[in-house]
Amino acid sequence: MGLKLNLLLVAALLASCLVLVKTSYESRQLFAQLDAARAEQRQLDAEYKRLDAEAQAQGTHLRVERTAREKLLMRTATPGVTAYVVDPLATAASAAAATPGASR
């Protein structure tokens, strides 16, 4: 009876050791995955900050003006380059309204 009990206890001890080894291995794997995920999070945070700063820089008024001037060859409107268009219908209507008796 003592031998059977000893064999049973040895088997239980071996099973417990195997479970401990398996649990330790899984724990190490999960810790490695957690560490990799944290590293990826830091990398993505840095990339987000860089892209956010770049988006803010591209939206500034000076950048828009520079792009319009350099790429689209636009220039500031001055009276010398401005062409004023007169609407003949609007001019006739305002002249008719200004003259008494012209209507009807």
UniProtKB/TrEMBL annotation:
InterPro entries, sorted: Cell_div_FtsL
Coiled-coil ranges (or none): 27-54
Pfam families: FtsL
Keywords: Cell cycle, Cell division, Cell inner membrane, Cell membrane, Coiled coil, Membrane, Transmembrane, Transmembrane helix
One Gene Ontology term, aspect cellular component: plasma membrane
Membrane topology: Single-pass type II membrane protein
Top-rank taxon, per record: Bacteria
One GO-annotated biological process of the protein: FtsZ-dependent cytokinesis
Predominant cellular place of this UniProt entry's protein: membrane
Keyword flag Coiled coil: yes
Record's subcellular location: Cell inner membrane; Cell membrane
General function of this protein: Essential cell division protein. May link together the upstream cell division proteins, which are predominantly cytoplasmic, with the downstream cell division proteins, which are predominantly periplasmic.
Family: Belongs to the FtsL family.
NCBIfam families: ftsL_broad
HAMAP family xrefs: FtsL
Subunit structure: Part of a complex composed of FtsB, FtsL and FtsQ.
Name of protein: Cell division protein FtsL
The species this protein was found in: Rubrivivax rivuli
